[in-house]
């Protein structure tokens, strides 16, 4: 009997060309470190520090993956999640926050985020 190989999300990413990742984080140091870490894992990263920057990047080429901070200097990251859902419905989005609570976690899931993680 052959050993079955369990396919993980990382396997799916490496087998496809859909490795584009948008990181939206207004803390420049965290945005830079996170971008570098994800590039080392094979993602083609674009980073934005605001909703306006994210919208410009999404309009140019909507990513297949996104990591979005909940609280941004120019509004809520949920706005970015909605933009992504409209432009790239299959985008797998994770919302990061230092201010986690159940209502925002539910709101993020309802508009398409696949995960909600406290920093």
Describe what you observe in this structure.
Helix content is 42%, strand content 26%. The protein contains 5 helices and 7 strands. The protein has helices at residues 9-15, 28-40, 51-60, 77-87, 102-110; strands at residues 20-24, 44-48, 65-69, 71-72, 75-76, 92-97, 113-118. Strand 6 (92-97), helix 5 and strand 7 (113-118) form a beta-alpha-beta unit. The longest helix is centred in the N-terminal third of the chain and has 13 residues, at 28-40.
Low-confidence stretches: 12-16
The structural class is alpha/beta
- Beta percentage is 25-35%
Strands of the largest sheet, in order across it? 2-1-3-6-7
Radius of gyration: 15 Å
Give the rounded overall mean pLDDT.
88
Helix amount, in percent? 40-55%
Largest sheet composition? 5 strands, parallel
Total of helices: 5
Number of strands: 7
The outline comes out as globular
Euclidean distance between termini CA atoms = 43 Å
Order of helices and strands: HEHEHEEEHEHE
Describe this structure in a few short sentences.
The chain is an alpha/beta fold and 119 residues long. The protein has helices at residues 9-15, 28-40, 51-60, 77-87, 102-110; strands at 20-24, 44-48, 65-69, 71-72, 75-76, 92-97, 113-118. The chain is globular, with a radius of gyration of 15 Å.
Which properties best describe this structure?
alpha/beta, 119 residues, two-stranded antiparallel sheet, 7 strands, 42% helix, 5-stranded parallel β-sheet, globular, 5 helices
What is the fold's blueprint, element by element?
Blueprint: H1 9-15, E1 20-24, H2 28-40, E2 44-48, H3 51-60, E3 65-69, E4 71-72, E5 75-76, H4 77-87, E6 92-97, H5 102-110, E7 113-118
Parallel strand pairs: 1-2, 1-3, 3-6, 6-7
Antiparallel strand pairs: 4-5
Helix pairs in contact: 3-4
